[in-house]
Every structure is written in structure tokens, then in C-alpha cells.
Amino acid sequence: MTQATATKPGYLVRHLATAPRVPCPCGQSTRPLTVADTPLCNLHVTFITSSERHYHRRTTEVYLVLEGTGTLELDEERVDVGPGSVIYIEPGVRHRLTSDAGVRTVVFGVPALLPDDEYFD
Questions:
Q1: Band of residue 69 on the pLDDT scale cut at 50, 70, 90
Q2: 70 to each of 20, 28, 66, 73, 102, how far by Cα in Å?
Q3: In angstroms, rounded to a whole number, what is the distance separating the alpha carbons of residues 49 and 13?
Q4: Coil, helix or strand for 60?
Q5: Helices and strands per DSSP (H, E), number in the chain
Q6: Residue 103, burial from CB neighbour count under 10 angstroms (0-12, 13-18, 19+)
Q7: Residue 103 to residue 48: CA distance in whole angstroms
Q8: 115 contact partners, CB below 8 Å, separation of at least 6
Q9: C-alpha pair distances (Å), 26 with each of 1, 34, 40
């Protein structure tokens, strides 16, 4: 299988191994699909140990926990999460994930997360 990105009108194929990896307020994020690719959605694979409490005004996020366990703050509530947990977070909900050993998540956002749509308390 090739590791190259394939793009034509109507589709994009990118592999995690070649996707950009960037530090972010949540941890270390591999970003195979970003607003630079489409304004409709984003998909990030992020390793989180202790994210900063934040919220988005426009983007709804869905987290899928792949590995690890942790605690997710959603506004004033705390929820334990682990492999297979799916968390739907609407705009305006303050959230923060913490884990001693780290949690690997898929984060899907609609519409695609813009750099100026991340607000910290």
C-alpha cells in the first residue's frame, strides 16, 4: 500500500503515517483531515494526557477513545472514559480530558475546526 496522499475532485486519501503531526493544547495530534482540506469536517488522532479546559463556538466534536482510560470534564460534570467510549460535545460545552498514562482518541469535528474557534477559561 502506498503512503502517498491521493486527491481528486470528490475525494482525498491520506494515511496516518504521512499526516501532519502537531502539538496542540490537548497533547500531540496527527491530523489527516483539517480545514485546509475541507471546511465540512476534520479528523484528528490525538494522544491526550492533560488537555486544557476549552470550548468551541462553532464546532461540534465527537471523541472516540481508542486506548487508555481517563476522566473527561464536560462543563461541571466528570465522566470516566476508556476504549470504546464515544463522547458527543456540542459548541459551548467546556471540556477537558485528563489521564495519568494517556488516552489515544479519534476526534471528529463538524464543521471543520478553525484555529480561532478554540477558547480557554
A1: very high
A2: 25, 16, 12, 10, 7
A3: 29
A4: strand
A5: 0, 12
A6: buried
A7: 5
A8: none
A9: 31, 16, 22
Convert the pLDDT of each residue in 5-45 to its tens digit.
Answer: 767 778 889 999 999 999 988 889 999 999 999 999 999 99
* All cell numbers assigned to 41: 469536517
Q: Which three cell numbers stand for residue 76?
A: 461541571
Closest C-alpha to 99, from 69, 76, 66:
69
Buried b (16+ CB within 10 A) or exposed e, 75-88: eeeeeebeeebebe
Q: What is the DSSP string of 28-55?
A: EEEEEE-TTT-SS-EEEEEEEEEPPPEE
Per-residue cell: 63: 471523541
